[in-house]
Design goal:
The protein folds into 2 domains: 2-172, no CATH class; 299-468, Heat Shock Protein 90, CATH 3.30.565.10. A hairpin with a 3-residue loop joins strand 7 and strand 8 (442-450). The protein starts with a helix and ends with a strand. Helix 9 (306-316) packs across helix 11. The protein is elongated and about 120 Å long. The strands form 3 sheets. It has a 5-stranded mixed sheet. Strands 1-9 form a two-stranded antiparallel ribbon. The protein has a two-stranded antiparallel sheet with strand order 2-4. The protein has 14 helices and 9 strands. With 469 residues, the chain is an alpha+beta fold. Helices cover 68% and strands 10% of the residues.
Length: 469
């Protein structure tokens, strides 16, 4: 029980230290951001007061205000180096803030009271306005630290009361005098400042609470994503081994290696083999997606001749294209078209694009793969003569587990992951992927890479290319 209580106390201290750090940083950052506004207003007040009142005393008081501002700036620089870990440093900073606040508020109050003392006739509108502005400024921008705000407003409040009683003591006027009207007005202003300060303080507290809720929700979301990722990885790996055996066994049976298959069983075995292959593709896609999201997919970047890459990809899908009765043609780049990339991953990208083009093309159609140099870029385009893609479907085309035709009677199946994985692999190559399409005419998916120059390739020969996640 003692250990549990100690753990809870440590947790409370940690949260308090985190809250203290946030409040101190907010206070310092805002104070530094608004230094020009503060000093501009005090400078204007000093110039105005020097013209109408004693210039020597006014400028002397203003110099004290500037000195306290310099102390605040020095404290701000020291506070920015604090990482929030050492509570002793945090307490030291708080003490310095309290001391600087006291000196600053006293200097400002003396600066304003000095004007009121020299104004022997009429109301004290000018000094009261400056004091009201300083109080309102504190209420708006010092709400991060309640104690510091109360300390500053308490000193300003004493200055308000001093000015309020100044003419009352000087002239001892009757209750019907305007001097008493000014006195009660000052009391009302004090209430207004206190109420405004409380509202700004509550607003800041609500913002902190909202930030805390967002951080907690973010932590829960990250934990859920990690569990999901681990679950997908575990399940996919556990399914892959037995499924590989099932697919291999069905292929052996289907090709008659284990003996002649009765005609009645051939359709059933063929369907089983086809669905097992689809399930294997889904598992492989899930594993790739999990690796990408976890930052575990490795890329070995090397110079690649794009024409060779395309030829290899087309040859690897020739069997599938032949079964569908679709011709695949290539238009190579006439220039030197080389890029930096991971060959195996880019073959995967090309296989996905070719597979999609073939699936959505009609028998007897043509799929064309074109490579061309566009200045400092290299484009690979896959053109098909299929059904096309409707406008505004980009999010579904490249989304996860989504297809443009998601109806139960769609022409082709699929996991809805291929193009999403393709897009993420392409982006890891600092390349872009997009498409143009027209319904009933066909679609063209294209990838654009930075073109590799001779100088860049020479650099890669001198330095080993590291794997990056």
């Amino acid at each position: 029980m003692k250990d549990l209580n100690a753990l809870r106390a440590a947790r409370v201290d940690w949260f308090e230290s985190q809250g203290r750090e946030q409040r101190i940083k907010d206070y310092i950052v805002l104070a530094n951001q608004l230094v020009l506004q503060r000093q501009a207003s005090f400078f204007a007040a000093a110039v105005l007061a020097s013209f109408y009142f004693d210039a020597v005393s006014t400028l002397t008081c203003y110099a004290a205000v500037v000195l306290t501002e310099l102390l605040d700036q020095l404290l701000g620089r020291q506070s920015r180096a604090w990482d929030g870990e050492d509570p002793v440093v945090g307490r030291r900073i708080l003490k310095r803030i309290a001391l600087n606040t006291t000196l600053s508020a006293i200097a400002i109050s003396i600066f304003i009271v000095n004007m009121a003392l020299q104004q022997t006739s009429g109301s004290h509108f000018t000094p009261l306005f400056f004091l009201f502005s300083a109080s309102l400024f504190a209420a708006m921008y010092n709400s991060q630290m309640t104690g510091i705000l109360i300390l500053r407003l308490a000193i300003y409040g004493l200055a308000f009361l001093f000015i309020a009683f100044l003419d009352v003591v000087r002239f001892l006027p009757p209750l019907s005098s305007p001097i008493w009207l000014e006195f009660f007005t000052i009391l009302f202003v004090l209430y207004f400042i206190a109420d405004t300060s409380a509202k700004f303080y509550r607003s800041y507290e609500e913002r902190l609470a909202q930030m805390k809720r967002l951080e907690e929700e973010n932590e829960r979301t990250k934990a859920a994503l990690e569990v999901k990722s681990q679950f997908l990885s575990t399940v996919s790996h556990e399914l892959r081994t037995p499924l590989t055996s099932i697919v291999g066994s069905l292929e052996l049976v289907n090709h008659g290696v284990l003996g002649e298959v009765p005609d009645k069983l051939k359709p059933t075995i063929g369907m089983a083999a086809k669905n097992a292959q689809r399930l294997s593709t889904l598992i492989n896609d899930l594993l790739d997606l999990q690796k990408i999201e976890a930052g575990e997919m490795k890329f070995d970047f090397q110079p690649i001749e794009v024409n060779d890459l395309v030829t290899e990809a087309v040859e690897s899908t020739a069997g599938y294209a032949g079964k569908l009765g679709i011709e695949v043609t290539t238009v190579p780049c006439a220039e030197d078209c080389r890029v930096m990339g991971d060959r195996s991953r880019l073959i995967q990208v090309m296989n996905n694009l070719l597979s999609n083009a073939l699936k959505f093309s009609d028998e007897g159609g043509t799929v064309k793969v074109q490579v061309e140099a566009l200045g400092e870029r290299v484009r690979i385009a896959v053109h098909d003569e299929g059904v096309g893609i409707p406008q505004g479907a980009s999010e579904r085309v490249f989304g996860k587990f989504s297809q443009v035709d998601s109806s139960d009677v769609r022409k082709v199946g699929g996991t809805g992951l291929g193009l999403n994985i393709t897009k993420q692999i392409v982006e890891r190559h600092n390349a872009t992927i997009d498409y143009v399409s027209e319904l009933g005419v066909g679609s063209s998916f294209y990838i654009e890479f930075d073109r590799l120059t001779d100088c860049e390739e020479a650099d890669t020969d001198l330095e080993p290319v590291a794997e990056v996640a």
